[in-house]
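Annex B. Sample input.
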Amino acid sequence: LPVFPPVRRDVTLAAPATLHAEAVRRAVLELKPPFLESVDLVNLFTPDPDKDERNLTFRLTYRHQARTLKDKEVDKEHGRMLEGLLKKLPVRV
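Annex B, continued. Sample output.
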């Protein structure tokens, strides 16, 4: 069992309806954010059925094996990951 607590961040992305949640999850993992432990889809919502877009909410869990992470350092790495994701996929925050 882990000794140090996780830090979790939720992020909701607006994405084309044709973009699979697993493709987004894989893209996050390919970016290799430091301390990332898991990426889980927690919600899928289509705000307007007439539009070809939906919202995907992911929960990212960060954890360091040797110490407690600070919010500031997680925020920095989470922001870098989001920047990379926005360049890599047709999504917006």
